[in-house]
Amino acid sequence: MKKEYFFIGLFFLFNLLNASIDSDLDGVEDSLDLCPNSKITDIVDKNGCATEHLEVDFNSNIDLTLGYTIKEYKDYSSKFTNLSFVYSFKEYSFNLYLTNDSEDDIESSLSYTLNRDSLIYTFTFGLYIPTSNDKIDYFTRLNLVYLTNCCNLFLNLEYDFLRDLDTKNSYIVSFGVGKNLSSNIYSSINFRYLSAISKDSSNEKYISFTLSYDINSNWYISSGLDIGLNSSSAKRVVNFNIGYSF
Length: 246
Description:
By secondary structure, the chain is mainly β. Helices cover 7% and strands 57% of the residues. It has two domains: 2-53, no CATH class; 60-245, Porin (Beta Barrel), CATH 2.40.160.40. It contains one helix and 14 strands; from the N terminus they run αββββββββββββββ.
């Protein structure tokens, strides 16, 4: 029995030593390969030499952002944290937003961006997935950015399809101007209008200021201040975010 195992082992060793070796994984064994260092993206001929090179675009990006927000009303204030995950590939991006705000909604959306010279369009469709009831709400967004030599002008439009019995469809309009103060500092100011979502609520108006700073190629921080312009709005909304991009 031991002799049988010995000869079986010699047989497999012989086949292993005589097996064809293809070091560059192009489908042509090394003994016949005239171009032994082909790239994995090369289409090769029978001699192992490239006849065509596939262009593979790995232009993707992931952003993780952790935020903290304080809302101050006339009689009370609320504090909550949020986590944002954004995966971008070419002109598409997927966003997932989690918060422990009182609404406890999970926001999930898909965006498509078009760049036309000085004008950038972003179209977004998304869902508000609540954790407290069984109604899923929908929203659409259109973001327009016009680039100039000194700054950029932007307009953001959103329409929410709300399905709860005590709510109605609503919309958000905001517009403003932003400017790069340096290569890694950006600031903006905008006006934002939110329509009432129920008979018992009123429209809200804010003037908003934002400031962001790129610490390095990966880390960034940002902060924002919203000031309410009418009695139905929060007096102040302050937020701070820290993120990592890779």
